[in-house]
Amino acid sequence: MNDLKLLISFEKCLNVSSDRLELITFDTNMNASYVSDHNRIYELSGQNVEVLFDLRDDFLANSDDNKLILFQFLTESNNLCLINSKGDLNLFNVLSKTVEGVGSISDGLSAAQWSPDQELLALVTTTNALILMTKDFDIVTEQKISLENVVESEFVNVGWGSFETQFKGSAGKHAVKEKTEDQILSWDDRQARICWRPDGEYFVVHFIDPLTNSRKFQVFNREGVLHSTIEKNVNILEAAIDWKYSKSLITTSIHRFNKHEIIFFERNGLAHGGFTLPFPIGQMKINGIYWNLDSSILCIWSELAEKNSSNSENKSIIQLWSMSNYHWYLKQTLNFEMNNKVTSVCWDPEDSFKLHLFTQNGQYINYKFGWIVNYCKPVEDFNGSIALIDGCNALITPFKNKVIPPPMSLHKITCPKQINKIVWSNCNMDFLVYLMNSDVLFYRYYKAKDEIQNGLKLGTYNYELFGQVNLELENKKDYNLSVQHLIWTSPNELLVIYETKKSTFDLVEFEMEKKVDGKFLLRKKSEINLNYEPFNTDFDPKSKTLAIQSTNGTFYKYRKESIWTLISDDLRFLQTCPNFGIFTIDTDKNQRDICVGMSQFYRLYVDKVEIANNCTSYYVHDEFLLYTDHTNTLKFISLSKLKDCGAKKVQEESLRKVERGAKLLIALNSGTGCVLQMPRGNLELVHPRTLVVSKLKADIDNFRYLNAVETMRKHRVNMNILYDHNPTSFLDNLTIFVKQIDNANLINLFLTELSDEDTTQSFFKDHYPERNIGKKDEQKSKSSTKLTNLCTKLIDICENIDKSKFFLVILSCYAKMKELEKALYRVIQCKSVSQASVDEGTYDFDVVLMVAEKSQKDPKEYLPFLNELKKLEENYRKFKIDFYLKRYKKALQSIVKCGDEQNNEILKLVDNHKLYSEGLKYYKPTDEMFKKISKLFASHLGEKKYYEEAGLILMRAEQLEDALDLFLKSSNWQMFINVCLRLKLPSHLYSEKLSLILDKLKSENKFLECAQIYENYMNDTESAILNLINGSHWSEAITLIHKSDRFDFFETNLLPSLKTNQVDLLKIIEQYENKFKEYKERLDQVREEKAKKKEKEMLDEFDDENRHRDDLSMSEMSNSTFDTESQAGSTRSSASTVASTFSNKSKRRSRQKKSLISLKKGSQFEDLALIQELSDTISYLYKLKDSIFSLSKSLLLFNLNDLCVELQNQYESVIDLFERTSSQIWNYPTQNENENFSFQTYQQNLMANLTDFSKLEIKYRYPPESVGKRSWKLHFYE
């Protein structure tokens, strides 16, 4: 739903005496333009026109019949190729200004055209002969053009009947009659036309066929071989022809019996659709058809046919058409008088949206257009309307009310003339249209009637014309669309920017006054001369600021005091932006105006900061800047992040994937919907979770709880956010919540989802980043008193408001707090029916019997059970009831009171239901039951391998021998020796026990602990020293050697061990360094392969975008909208089911993620597996720092300097390698501090975006924390 907006236009009157400026060509290298009127060659330079060469002296030989048929600049040789109708071929060098004759065709020529790469020249003679030449003018092929020639692509008759019996649609039965005469239009010049396909592989020759006396075309390949011919029964074609850039479609025009059409042909000559021109049949002739570079705009140049009267409204017309959703829109119309008709039209060879044209009076006009989404501003009664121009029709669709896909619309306003501009009011939903005859029509948005649907009263709105005026400006240049921009700032104020007769631009302020006849009177209030060229404008209704962007990207801000005054001109975009806007955000102290724009080359700017370099569309919402990009992603940036964006890029807050090629049209302010348009033109309405949560936050902050609940029901949002967003505020305003909802079912729905979990740190953690700073993603929220506090207060409020109305809410609160007895008594008080099994938990048999009688249970089922219970002792009866209800803690409390005779049943209950801690509470440590339960508890802990805790439990119960075995298993040597001492074992048994614990510690490499046992408990200093040396505890070993005066250990054990340990560490460092280099090299290879694949996909996506739009079948057109979230009233699963499903899916995804991350070469996530291995390698070597430091100090102490230096240097080298390459491994996108775009930065960011770090565990997402050199490096050798 894009409109073609005029951004800027320039006009200059060329000082030439000719009215035949029909030929133009461009030198893109030198930025020069050359024009010819068949008599002279002119060079355009600024406002000046220089005559380069006079053709009448020799080349055209003063013959009226001899004229230029080809005038084209050849880039490689800096020559202008001049070919005339007599057949002369000449080259004019623009540097030396000399002419060189290169050949002549004796038969004369009717058409000539160079291929796009200027390697081949195609010529058609006056005798319908085709000549193909090289760039050196050597003949490649020469042949006669005839419909009888054999073609490569012959039509195949599939038996669908003859031409006369086929259905002809709106053409009627007249189309069946073949005409053999007057197939050529009277105004046809009977000259051939040549048009190359933009890739240079084929070209089409449009010629007069003498056999059928009609225009036909044939398609030839690059070698001059005939490929195809137009289908036989297509007649009355006009001479204009062009080949569409993005698709192999040949475009020309045709006169049928009842309409004038633009028709498309495939390369094989078969017709492929078209559209009808808004001209009466036979009135207008088409002089030219031109596609722009990206094939998004079709320019049609037409003028009155010779036989028609000049009194017609249509004179010399330029029309710009575009197609969306299989409908052709007339976007712009330029109407010229016949006394100053258009003589030449062409698109710029480099800029897709720049149009050049010349008129008969020597005018040269340059128009620059741009695609925009013409949406209304978020003002009073905002309804998300978007306006479209379609010839005389203004198509308006308010997307807040209805989503209607183009070409349909909710409102269709037909104007008396073609529309050039639609401008929205900046204070309400009114708009104005600017017609091609300079009339301005004003339309008011009003309430037409009240419509009732499904018993609801709905207001129906419409538009009505309430005024018009002809915009006359005394100093305005006299050409079409010299009025560049219109800004409707207030109900009575209109701003106009136009080009003056002095070729400058003025900003005029008009006051509008309505007259009695309904017309407006414009009274000029002020006029400002702009000393720059205005490219685009926008007005912010909030701050009343006018922003004008100049052609060099600078934007100027104006604010009205007594007159419009310039307040800022110090910022500029790096590129001009056809899509441009200004908006206001609130800062801590005041408001700030921010300009946002998207360039023609997909750059998105906010003030002078480039936000994205692949943006395809954007929109400024109340809370976010939304934009789509070429990765088919809709991204969101909070406006609060733009307050101090400064010179740094701003990272997006969240994102969501969209369909390929989708572009954002509008996001409904104060709503949750976004309207996206697909490449073919159909629309989709989506509700991104970011906007949904943003709206919920606003509703909760403003106590609009009913709106919030309805939004959560519609979009299936977890209702815990009501409380977790601001717990204190919600509890304080809980009464307002209940009164607004006023529905027990809705409140119960909220209670079913309520949990103690803080959802702002789980479900909604991405929407509350300030609450999750420094917290790991997988960290679980701590349990709180959220449920108890909320339910307790909610019960009090419901009882105070209406106890009977909110009775179910009160019961749900008790159930949520697991206080079923209180809920039961509430039911009993109201004489309701509940489950008999729950009533039994009250131990009141009268109540149980009363409820059971009113239930649907059979008395045969419950009466015997109740009778058995009555026979039991009271405490044992309570135990049976609690056990039946699976309330095992209460059951234990009751059975303990029954005495020692139930000890066996107590032990069975404790062991079966793991109530060890509860059971120990009822006994003293000296009781036998305390010891039995402790033994069961220790056995349970031992099964879980909690040996140390089990030993402590047994030690507390004075079961020391069993505790000794458990302490041995746990390697807790202090407690093991403590128990041995308490057992007072004989010396030989004591030594055996110590040997057991020593063997256990040695197997676990705990040599320091072994040394302590040998020294302190066995008086074996020699063994203690050896264990310290074996465990590399050098300082402790040296200390003990000196303490015991055993200096012989230095030579026999310590020094050899130091040298051996140094060699082992060097080998480990070398091994892991080689492993690191191998993985790093492979990671670079994988990323390079992925980058090449991604670049290829992006190129294919660009190529496919237009093809996707054109190739889709008409049957795929859909006028339905798509809502990603379920609608209100849809069935909803219970909270428990949703929670369990979510949990299971989460675990399943976690397992799948781990299985997918594999080191297997060529696997999908090989790069992630490599990053994990690299991280583990770095972490392991970082952990060696203590061993390195300890060994280095000992080597230094014993003067082993060489060994120490070698170890230090080797470790420092590998640490430097890690720190140098870590930024390459964890290559997150960088922010370019410079304004200039760097291709190197683009490549780095492309490589970074290919690695999805989110699939890794938290510890692998960032480099391991580096070790400081102070923790391991000796500075003695520096």
Automatic annotation (TrEMBL):
Specify the pathway.
tRNA modification; 5-methoxycarbonylmethyl-2-thiouridine-tRNA biosynthesis
- Keyword 4Fe-4S on this protein? no
Provide the ELP1 three-helical bundle domain boundaries: 1048-1225
List the GO biological process terms: tRNA wobble base 5-methoxycarbonylmethyl-2-thiouridinylation
Listed Basic and acidic residues bias regions: 1094-1112
Give the record's GO CC terms.
cytosol; elongator holoenzyme complex; nucleus
Q: Polar residues composition bias: which ranges?
A: 1115-1127
Stretches assigned to the ELP1 alpha-solenoid domain: 689-835, 841-869
Record InterPro entries: A-sol_ELP1, Beta-prop_ELP1_1st, Beta-prop_ELP1_2nd, Elp1, HB_ELP1, TPR_ELP1, WD40_repeat_dom_sf
Domain named ELP1 first N-terminal beta-propeller is located at 42-350
Q: Alphabetically list the UniProt keywords.
A: Cytoplasm, Nucleus, tRNA processing
Q: Which GO terms describe its molecular function?
A: tRNA binding
Q: Where is the composition biased (Low complexity)?
A: 1128-1144
Every ELP1 N-terminal second beta-propeller domain range:
389-664
Give the span(s) annotated as Disordered: 1094-1155
Q: Where is the composition biased (Basic residues)?
A: 1145-1154
Subcellular localization: Cytoplasm; Nucleus
Domain ELP1 TPR: from-to ranges: 876-1037
Q: Which family does it belong to?
A: Belongs to the ELP1/IKA1 family.
Role noted for this protein: Component of the elongator complex which is required for multiple tRNA modifications, including mcm5U (5-methoxycarbonylmethyl uridine), mcm5s2U (5-methoxycarbonylmethyl-2-thiouridine), and ncm5U (5-carbamoylmethyl uridine). The elongator complex catalyzes formation of carboxymethyluridine in the wobble base at position 34 in tRNAs.
Q: Please report the name of this protein according to its UniProt entry.
A: Elongator complex protein 1
